[in-house]
Amino acid sequence: MAKRKSDTRTCAIYLRISLDRKMDGLAIERQCEDCERRARERGWDIHIPEPSKPSPYCHYVDQSKSATDKTKRRPAYDRLVADYKAGRFDAIVCWDLDRLTRQPRQLEDWIDEAEDHGLVLLTVSESVDLSTENGRMFARVKAAVARAEVERMGQRRHRALVQHAALGKIPTGPRLYGYNWDGSVNEYEAEIVRTIYRRFLGGVAVKTMCRTLMGKPVGLPVKGLPCTPRPSYAVAVERNERLAAEGKPTKPLPPEQPWTNTMVTSMLRNPRYAGYSFKMTDADRRDRKNNAHTSKVPFIVKGDDGQPVMGEWEPLVSEADWLAVQDILDDPARKTNRKGCRRAHLGSGLFLCGTCGRPMAAHGGDKRHYNTYYCNRQDCPRPVYRRKEHVDAYVLAYVRAFLGRPDMRDLLVVRDDARLDAVNDEIKRQRMLISRAEDGYLEGALSAAKARSAREKAEAEIERLEAERAALVADGSPDGILSAADPVAAFDAATLDEQRAVINALCTVVVHVHDRADKDMVNIDVDIIPKTRLDGTDA
């Protein structure tokens, strides 16, 4: 942006409140009135980013958004930055400097804009002249003081929460599934929790219970478990009921999502269901080792006598049952993945389902399953199941035949790095669209149906792009095999990852539903689409 030659400016008004418990907008309205008055006193034009919305929400508004945590997004702030860079205004008005940012790094960005492009930052209490040394010093000191106060508040809050847990008080924050907001038992949900514990102790798998809760059981449903919305949806419905009872406008409900194994496992791991008080710090929660599947016993609060502190809420399961569940979950024999996450099959994640076009999974063969490739997508209209050894033999024969050709190297296609960069950029853009749709839903700008539609459209495009990227980039570099004196021998001696890389570089394998009448003719329901110049042109 070029510096202005006159005193007439166009300003943007940024409004923020860290926590608005009532969400009635009164605090935001007070900020807006003061900021608009300051802008009128200067004779500035006010840039309105969303003229279709009523005041104050026609301005840049982050309601119940913290400016302290750099990992938390502020949608209106991000839009403010983007619009400033686009030249839509050259001044910013906010109620106080810490309303705009509490992060010194962000403040330095605005200082750079003031020095380089003449940005003016105006607050209700004073004018912060970022173009002068004293103004910049004042802003930096104010930001540092605000940051220090936030850190002290965080220490006080942490100490209060530790004391809260040591006294066995009901934890603050979102209610636990099975309990009401006041800590009393929600009988409908509590019975679901008790049933999950009973059935798990009786040998029912977590995945089986998830399918019943979603209303999609395989075989008979688990007795006593109804088809019910997941906890976050139930909480959103209750929130709207409270808002309606208070005569306030309700918010759009989030899209219904399926139950997951992690959600049920976290219920089985939660000590609060047995009446124990427990406390995890933010650092504990961020530690990947302390996920929903790991034991929470180390985080149970102990009293001065070394005994667990019991909470003042009613337990839903007995201590004996909860401890028995922990023993089962901690049993190393339950671990099904003993080989790590490396690929163990030639075509898993590489061969595509002929019905839905997405990558297939593989069974390694055990007492319950054949060695098969299968489509594990729940929305696939006709999932493919094929014997693995038949498909592998057919694909390997094709690869060996191609590698044995005397003109093999002349038929190879050079990787298109420019297209690969374009695909990666487009994947990032589509993910950004998903994030914007979620922000629009949370802000009330998009309905749940529109947000869901935007997300599904972007996810479908990401899936298509990732398939194209998989075609452009192999799992490993096949150059050593393709340039060997005897490529066939080099391929046969290669590791599984190297063989997958060669297959990925040479062709796309599409597996179709098997026709039982032609069970021995694999080639008629496995398509191999070359990525080479077999017909004299690029694949």
UniProtKB/TrEMBL annotation:
SUPFAM superfamilies (alphabetical): Resolvase-like
Annotated coiled-coil segments of the chain: 448-475
Coiled coil in keyword set: yes
Keyword presence, Ribonucleoprotein: no
Recorded GO MF terms: DNA binding; DNA strand exchange activity
Resolvase/invertase-type recombinase catalytic domain span: 10-168
Official protein name in the record: Site-specific recombinase, DNA invertase Pin
Source organism of this protein record: Slackia heliotrinireducens (strain ATCC 29202 / DSM 20476 / NCTC 11029 / RHS 1) (Peptococcus heliotrinreducens)
